[in-house]
Amino acid sequence: MLAGPMDYTPGVLSLQGNNQEIASTQARQLALYVVIYSPIQMAADLIENYDKYPGPFQFIKDVAVDWSDTRVLNGEPGDFATIARKDRNSETWFLGSVTDENGRTFDVPLSFLDAGRTYTAEIYRDGPKAGLSGGARFDIVIEKKTVTAGDVLPARLAPGGGLAVRFVPQGAAPKKRK
């Protein structure tokens, strides 16, 4: 997927598919929009489920689908990946990090951000009880913080989890998505 796009439908906030649970957290479903390059994206769940989870759905409404820059920050094929991408039509950056069935904790240097700029980081991360079973898959924390290229973002990915971040330059009007 680094060489070109593929078809994949993330964003299933109900975490249900074909009458079975999806082995994922909500934060991972959001992160997949960034990790997997697919310039024709869709919201793959039922509208009732997006109405039920308006916080996570906001990321789906805001995320770009085509990029001017891509940075692979870490990863191991089949295990985990962290990718930062810059929106082709704005100065906004996005970060997605996903893991397999193993939880992970690491720091993400934000050196990919433009030096000398301050950003509002809109963070969608696995909550403290997140995991692959039952209601734990829905444990998500949504928060905002101010960051620069010199900062480091701590990442804690639950088993089957993820982290999705939108970095909006301060002082710039973010481009709204429909």
Automatic annotation (TrEMBL):
One Pfam family linked to the record: GH97_C
Protein source organism: Asticcacaulis biprosthecium C19
Protein's name according to its UniProt entry: Alpha-glucosidase SusB
Glycosyl-hydrolase 97 C-terminal oligomerisation domain sequence ranges: 66-167
Upper lineage: Bacteria, Pseudomonadati, Pseudomonadota, Alphaproteobacteria, Caulobacterales
Listed InterPro entries: Aldolase_TIM, GH97_C, Glycosyl_hydrolase_97
